[in-house]
Amino acid sequence: MKAKNRDQSLSDSRELDGSYDQLTGNPSTSQSKKTIKQRFLKLLPCCKPSAAPSISQSNEEDDFELSTVCHRPESMDKLQEQTKFTKKELQVLYRGFKNECPSGVVNEENFKNIYSQFFPQGDSSMYAHFLFEAFDTNKNGSVSFEDFVFGLSIILRGTINDRLNWAFNLYDLNKDGCITKEEMLDIMTSIYDMMGKYTYPTMQDDAPREHVESFFQKMDRNKDGVVTIEEFIESCKKDENIMQSMQLFDNVI
After folding, report:
1. CA-to-CA distance for 55 and 61, rounded, in angstroms?
2. Tens digit of pLDDT for each residue in 82-108?
3. Residues 6+ apart with CB under 8 A from 100
4. Which helix (H) or strand (E) holds 143?
5. Residue closest to 174 by CA, chosen among 164, 184, 165
6. If residue 228 lies in a helix (H) or strand (E), which one and from where to where?
7. Which residues pair with 143 in a beta bridge?
């Protein structure tokens, strides 16, 4: 019985990452190319094993996969229903996620460490913390494949309102339904820290605060010192630059 469950579990995993042909049961011959989607995936990293063993035989690969995967994602059909990705896209995303994160989840410390590799000129730890919080919707201190694709589906395939709501949630640090100047300053400071001091043109120390003041002058319609979700969405939709920047993600995957 255990062997049967083990085989079924392995079959489900292979179906999810597209590593075998579902009609013939043979290994898939199609190889995914390195595209923008894979590079984008790397910006949202997962934990790596400290020492992955060298494995050549298929049965050893099966044993290694089953021993390292702590969290197994939901079925392909269910994820397809809950996101705006096709089955093939989910397979590509899962394959990349599983390769980077054999345990099936990523914690904040690993997220920060790997994210920092993409911004060696600055300190990305605080911005990575905010981003991790946005993806960790269950607030359990880890991001699973489900968490990852749910967030990615909104960012890449969501409506304008979906994307703006996601961005607002990122900026609303204490999740009380409004953005304060202090919260926005924390976000902007983290972004400037991530970019580094040795950029061109050189950024002034007061640049984050000036950016916040500009943000509130544009967004805080009733001048009450906070920006609500309604003010945020309305202001963003009227800003041509913001709308154009959001469209850059339309064809990432």
Report:
1. 6
2. 999 999 999 999 888 887 778 889 899
3. 41, 42, 45, 46, 47, 48
4. strand 142-144
5. 184
6. strand 226-228
7. 106
